[in-house]
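Can't paste images in this forum, so I'm doing it all in text. The chain is below; anyone willing to post the predicted structure tokens underneath?
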Amino acid sequence: MLSILLAQATSTTGTSAAVNVPELGGTFSSIGDYIAALITNYGMPIAVMAAVIVIIYAGFLYIHSAGNSDATGSAKELITGAIIGLVTLLLIGYFLALVIPGI
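Text version of the structure:
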């Protein structure tokens, strides 16, 4: 799909043209805008779901640690890492919306 987009975005003279991609909800004038929209529309939700799944898994590890300090520590590290990942994703989403309005 990316090669088709590139072929449509560049005419025979080498100038850029706007390409309409209805799946991503808009017309893109550059490949950078397309990639940013692709990441925002598909990558971010998948990453958020993965972080939530890691938090749930770490919660089960924490509950079933039965007082084992190693298991409790690893569960806390997983939860901390997942929360840091979620905050990072939110900041990336904010930055993309700030730099490229309308995605």
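The beta strands are 19-21, 26-28. Residues 31-63 form the longest helix (33 residues).
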